[in-house]
Specification:
This is Glycosyltransferase. The protein is of the alpha/beta class and 496 residues long. The protein is built from 18 helices and 14 strands.
Length: 496
């Protein structure tokens, strides 16, 4: 899909409004929140004081998710002063197949776009209020810094993740080089958080011998060079860790850039006229009776052995369930396919559970399902977008993390936020969960015990807090206004 080049170029009359340049990555889970930030900034002033350009970094494979183009078309038709620019393809790092982690890959890959970003920003005739980059895209900060343009970083993840990144450089200096964090007694010290077990650190930060670990430190250091850190959270959800960040306890007393909590960044669309089959099935289920299992936008996929374990655990639990089960990716791809249930599920499972369960083999509308009154629990891979959606709808969770920062998010859900029931998994076996453990955890979450009552109560408190935060005068609206004012001030200072 060809997108237009920026319409304001040297020699044209300057635009009346300063522009905010958002640099979004190719994945929907990163692209959609970044766009939502731009829309909220525009909505805050009725579109009178700022305009937005979204620069989209293409996938290194050259393949695009159709949902991104659908979102672009929808936003362009909305009448908002927001323009999209698909950046040209570049050759990824020559050794990218051997890069240990996504953090290292993204950091090195987007660095190749510094010249493109400089050219676009310097080519805009109007003042550029700021450039906003994604969580692991701090190599792009070279462009706005060289041009004298304010720069911000946007974390689609939690304040706790921001604390870990900011803390990582000093933590690396404090722990002897010959030690791994897993060898530390009592866990890893991150101010504002309970001691973090090393096994729950974000992938890449738990192994000091790999290059990905160095890139964690690099990004953490570069956050301190920005004009602000924007976080997809609310002040009421993570008060202790936000205090630790802003007081400099994560950075050895050195003041951090201003922190803006503007979450939850959840785009809620009106209900579809034609209900999805999963939603229609939920209509016939009792209130808060269904356990929803879904592992990311693509639904996630498992080995046959793990699928059988999930089936056994659900069947033995006796609880109602809606299970989004996907098949293995096609060769050379990473996205799951529609599942062949006859090949994956144990013989007779569908028939035995047909009165209380539905196994859905394709993508499902996760937000619509979580919004349904019949859903009482959510088994999630712990991506932050899924977590914020569960908080928004007040659904307690059963964390089943797989990669990236998901184990860290799972720890936070249980130990710090109190909205989840923990579940044991074996990281050495691709995060395998035994059928008996899943059965126990499902009963603990969906039953009538003390643990279930506590997490339900806490989840409903967070639902109320999330909605209050985005109302007029709410914490996130106030923080967004502070960000808006800082952006305007940055543009004014460039005019001087």
């Amino acid at each position: 899909m060809a997108m237009s080049a920026p319409s304001s170029q040297p020699g044209e009359p300057p635009a009346a409004k300063p522009r905010v340049v958002l640099v979004a990555l190719w994945g929907v889970s990163h692209f959609a929140p970044m766009v939502e930030v731009g829309k909220r900034l525009l909505a805050l002033s009725g579109g009178h004081s700022l305009a937005v350009d979204v620069l989209v970094v293409p996938s290194p494979t050259g393949k695009w998710e159709a949902e991104i183009f659908e979102r672009i078309r929808r936003e362009e038709a909305s009448g908002l002063d927001i323009r999209f620019h698909l950046l040209p393809a570049v050759e990824p790092p020559t050794d990218y197949m051997h890069i240990a982690g996504i953090e290292e890959f993204v950091s090195r890959y987007v660095q190749l776009y510094v010249p493109h970003l400089k050219a676009i920003v310097s080519g805009l005739a109007c003042p550029v209020a700021a450039v906003v980059v994604d969580i692991f895209c701090t190599t792009l900060l070279d462009a706005p810094q060289e041009l004298g343009v304010p720069a911000y970083v946007f974390l689609i993840s939690s304040a706790a993740m921001a604390a870990v990144l900011l803390r990582s450089p000093s933590l690396d200096e404090e722990v002897p080089a010959e030690l791994e964090f897993v060898e530390l007694e009592g866990g890893v010290d991150v101010p504002g958080l309970p001691p973090v077990p090393a096994s729950n650190l974000p992938s890449g930060l738990d192994n000091r011998k790999i290059m990905t670990y160095k890139w964690f430190l690099y990004n953490g250091r570069r956050y301190m060079e920005t004009d602000g850190i924007i976080i997809n959270t609310i002040a009421e959800l993570e008060p202790s860790v936000l205090a630790a960040i802003t007081e400099g306890r994560c950075t050895r007393g050195i003041p951090t850039p201003p922190v803006y909590t503007i979450g939850p960044v959840v785009a809620i669309a009106p209900p579809a006229e034609d209900k999805h089959e999963c939603v229609r099935w939920l209509d016939s289920q009792p209130t808060a009776s269904v356990l929803f299992l879904c592992f990311g936008g693509g639904g996630g996929y498992f080995s046959v052995a793990q699928v059988h374990g999930i089936a056994q655990g659900l069947e033995r639990s006796g609880h109602r369930f809606l299970w989004v089960l996907r098949g293995q990716p096609e060769p050379g791809t990473k996205l799951p396919t529609d599942a062949n249930l006859a090949e994956l599920l144990p013989n007779g499972f569908v028939e035995r559970t047909k009165d209380r369960g539905l196994v859905w083999p394709a993508r499902a509308p996760q937000k619509d399902v979580l919004a349904h009154a019949a859903v009482g629990g959510f088994v999630t891979h712990c991506g932050w977008s899924s977590i914020t959606e569960s908080l928004w709808f007040g659904v307690p969770t059963l964390p089943w993390p797989h990669a990236a920062e998901q184990h860290f998010n799972a720890f936070m859900l249980v130990a710090e936020m109190g909205v989840a029931v923990g579940m044991k998994l074996d990281k050495e076996r691709s995060n395998f969960v035994e059928a008996a453990e899943l059965e126990r955890a499902v009963k603990a979450l969906m039953g009538d015990g003390e643990a279930a009552r506590k997490v339900r109560k806490r989840a409903m408190e967070m639902k109320a807090a999330c909605r209050k935060a985005v109302e007029e005068g709410g914490s996130s609206v106030v923080s967004l206004q502070r960000l808006h004012d800082a952006l305007i001030q940055g543009a004014v200072e460039q005019r001087k």
